[in-house]
């Protein structure tokens, strides 16, 4: 990736911020895979258990022959949907879209071994910037799991989903994973694990930025901070300067002067409920058809359709 305008904007204003896409260099992707196995990090296992329960139902509802996945990572959870769709007997073309070459290669290698009849065509791109190269066939199921949509402010979430809607055909399906609002102690523990992997994942974003724009951040000079903001219903993750620092970013032509205690915002993770999810989907050109929620109310999967001009009809309730 050569366009770092978003990074320049984020580091040229106060408060400082780094776009979360810079987490996912090869090391960051591997660290996140490890985080997903931590006992404190409930989202991955909860979403996976939910997918295990409802994948066959989703396959029957969509009967998709192509599945496009935004931010696919190594496709740990997606294999449940792949298996269910292949069992429909219509074949399947899987199109993972990710910013990490490592993640795409790992996904292709693993899935090819497990599903030899699966056609896989990965797309290496920054899907937050453009989906111009994506041309799904009619009857596609687009998938965006992990509540990654929560890493964007509302207006950017809607813009991203509208961009996806323009790639899809009327009536195509879209499955969105959303992390739900829950007690603050559960939320904060998920981003402050006892092994310190999330802290290392957070600091690694500085190494990624250093490589991308010839920077000289010293990651160990920053500490990890994650907290839940009740008003905005979001986790906010920061790197906090332990002392005064001067950082040069050659490719950006930028020099930062940071004071001890100053924060860099590296991620937000917004939490949802059913009404806010339906509102986001409708604003983006989708109609929520089915709502699948985990038994303890931690996570949900929203199955929507790319809306046409006509009235899409009432939404149904599903109890997996």
Structure, explained:
The chain is an alpha/beta fold and 320 residues long. It folds into two domains: 103 residues, no CATH class; 176 residues, Vaccinia Virus protein VP39 (Rossmann fold, 3-Layer(aba) Sandwich), CATH 3.40.50.150. 34% of the residues lie in helices and 25% in strands. The strands form three sheets. Strands 2, 3, 4, 5, 6, 7, 13 and 14 form an eight-stranded mixed beta sheet that branches. Strands 1-12-9-8 form a four-stranded mixed beta sheet. It has a two-stranded antiparallel ribbon with strand order 10-11. The chain is globular and about 60 Å long.
Quick recap:
This protein is an alpha/beta fold and 320 residues long. It is 34% helix and 25% strand.
Averaged pLDDT: 92
DSSP helix count? 9
Q: How many distinct folded domains?
A: 2
Helix content: 25-40%
Question: Residue ranges: pLDDT <50 for 5 or more in a row?
Answer: 310-320
Distance between the termini: 41 Å
Helix-strand blueprint:
Blueprint: H1 5-11, E1 16-17, H2 26-35, H3 42-62, E2 66-70, H4 78-86, E3 93-98, H5 101-114, E4 119-120, E5 123-124, E6 140-144, H6 154-167, E7 173-179, H7 184-190, H8 197-213, E8 222-229, E9 234-241, E10 245-249, E11 254-258, E12 263-270, H9 274-283, E13 286-293, E14 299-306
Parallel strand pairs: 1-12, 2-3, 2-6, 3-4, 3-5, 6-7
Antiparallel strand pairs: 7-14, 8-9, 9-12, 10-11, 13-14
Give keywords.
4-stranded mixed beta sheet; Rossmann fold; globular; 8-stranded mixed beta sheet; alpha/beta; 2 domains; 9 helices; 320 residues; 14 strands
């Amino acid at each position: 990736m050569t366009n770092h305008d978003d990074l320049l904007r984020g580091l040229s204003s106060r408060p400082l911020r780094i776009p979360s896409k810079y987490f996912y260099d090869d090391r960051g992707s591997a660290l996140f895979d490890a985080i997903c196995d931590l006992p404190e990090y409930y989202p991955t296992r909860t979403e996976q258990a939910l997918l295990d329960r409802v994948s066959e139902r989703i396959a029957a509802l969509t009967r998709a022959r192509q599945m496009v996945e935004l931010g696919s990572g190594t496709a740990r959870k997606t294999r449940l949907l792949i298996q269910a769709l292949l069992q429909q007997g219509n074949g399947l073309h899987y199109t993972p879209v990710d910013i990490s070459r490592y993640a795409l290669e790992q996904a292709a290698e693993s899935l090819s071994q497990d599903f030899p009849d699966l056609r896989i065509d990965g797309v290496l791109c920054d899907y937050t910037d453009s989906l111009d190269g994506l041309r799904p066939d009619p009857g596609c199921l687009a998938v965006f799991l992990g509540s990654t949509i929560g890493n964007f402010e509302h207006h950017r979430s809607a813009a991203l989903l509208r961009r996806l809607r323009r790639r899809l055909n009327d009536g195509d399906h879209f499955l969105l994973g959303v992390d739900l609002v829950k007690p603050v102690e559960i939320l904060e523990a998920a981003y402050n694990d006892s092994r310190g992997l999330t802290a290392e994942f957070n600091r690694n974003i500085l190494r990624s930025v250093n490589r991308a724009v010839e920077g000289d951040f010293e990651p160990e000079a920053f500490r990890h901070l994650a907290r839940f903001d009740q008003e905005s219903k979001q986790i906010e993750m920061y790197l906090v300067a332990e002392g005064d620092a001067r950082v040069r970013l050659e490719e950006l032509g930028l020099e930062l002067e940071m004071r001890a205690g100053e924060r860099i915002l590296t991620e937000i993770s917004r939490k949802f409920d059913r009404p806010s999810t339906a509102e986001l989907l409708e604003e983006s050109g989708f109609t929520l058809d089915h709502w699948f929620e985990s038994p303890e109310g931690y996570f949900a999967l929203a199955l929507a359709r790319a809306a046409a001009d006509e009235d899409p009809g009432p939404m149904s309730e599903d109890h997996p």
